[in-house]
Fold this sequence. Notes:
The complex is a heterodimer of chains A (304) and B (129). Chain A has 304 residues and is an alpha/beta fold. Chain A is 55% helix and 9% strand. Chain A has helices at residues 21-28, 30-40, 45-66, 88-101, 115-118, 126-137, 160-173, 186-195, 197-202, 214-227, 234-249, 255-276, 283-287, 291-295, 298-301; strands at 78-82, 110-113, 141-144, 179-184, 205-209, 231-232, 288-289. Chain A has a 5-stranded parallel β-sheet with strand order 2-3-4-1-5, with helices on both faces. A two-stranded parallel sheet of chain A has the order 6-7. The longest helix of chain A has 22 residues, at 45-66. Chain A is globular and about 75 Å long. Chain B is built from 2 helices and 6 strands, in the order H-E-E-H-E-E-E-E. Chain B has a 4-stranded antiparallel β-sheet with strand order 2-1-3-4. The chains are: A alpha/beta (304), B alpha+beta (129). The A-B interface holds A 1, 4-5, 7, 106-107, 109, 128, 131, 134-136, 138-140, 174, 177-178 and B 8, 11-12, 14-15, 18, 21, 52, 55, 57-64, 66-67.
Amino acid sequence: MTDTTSSEPPVEEAVPTHVDLAADFRDSGVAEVLDELDRELVGLKPVKQRIRETAALLIVDRARRRLGLTQNTPTLHMSFTGNPGTGKTTVALRMADILHRLGYVRKGHLVSVTRDDLVGQYIGHTAPKTKDVLKKAMGGVLFIDEAYYLYRPDNERDYGQEAIEILLQVMENQRDDLVVILAGYADRMEKFYQSNPGFRSRIAHHIDFPDYTDGELLAIAESMLDDQNYRLDTEAQKAMADYIALRRTQPHFANARSIRNALDRARLRQANRLFNTSGPIDAGELSRIAASDIRASRVFGAEQ
Amino acid sequence: MRITQGAFSFLPDLTDEQISAQVEYCLNNDWAIGVEYTDDPHPRNTYWEMWGNPMFDLRDAAGVMMEVKACRKAFPDHYIRLNAFDSTRGFETVRLSFIVNRPKTEPTFDYTRTEVRGRTVNITMTTER
Lengths: 304, 129
């Protein structure tokens, strides 16, 4: 056995009299995460602003704790509201990284769950299921997507209530071990908090994710393609811009997720087109997505 | 009589921080932790009752400590041990096992000698509670 388990009291560390917040910020590596966030995520201005503010709060709080001005762990549970495809999960991942770098969670992993992972089908199934998920999320961040499904007011015997009670208990008692992020549509989350005041009072940070503008979505499309070594030619860029404007007016529009699906289908069409052409093809042609690949979409067909 | 089974059993009882540190070591090695309890620490009683399933895919000791505390609450006067199972091919066995809870008064063992054929003596050990 090593000396880490010796029972002698640790030597009293001298309490420092001042801290350098800028140095703290630099050393923690949070700056890199924030810069990455700025660089890699298009748009989301208010979200980035809120995350910067939260990071500042955490750094100051950590400094206060070092000077002995405070003892308590701040409430870090958060609520991300916004339409589908606005980057909630992606930001949650970055948030876990920030919290880890600042030492508020020990491991910094993200466990992403929905109602199905927490709530059982029969009596007595829910508690072990919820506890299992909580145990896996310990030391990291638990991300509950579409959290409002946990509460079903129309069925008073719904097991969701049981999961909610266990969650609340752990959120309160094990704040050092786990950070919970609830996510979902803004209006339905609002209703959820109204019927579960326990959650509202335990969540300190509410962050609202706005929809992307058309220009931002085009930028997202290009960066997604760029990651996979594809590019849009000039015609295709116009087609994509038209596509985004049209797609927005149709039902089930899910911001960046719709764009990703559209691009997946465009790649499929591009592959088919290349497959049917004869003769040699160069690398440029293999990575070029033409306007016809996008114009063939069902979205354009709908207006005719 | 102080039962000395598993690792660390000749040391003073581990504190919760020490247990967490050991669990952390196990999780870093990708071992799955199982909580088990019994009221009969007889050496031949190899299989103790399981407190839930072994816990796979944990990242932090806090999850295990949650179960240890729950088990202690339910069985404060039982033996509770943690088993760390290594699923690596070639091991596929428990790599570390140690006791995390003992009853206030530990049982003793009773020896019964039985003379059998010739000069042979059979010894039977039973838990005296």
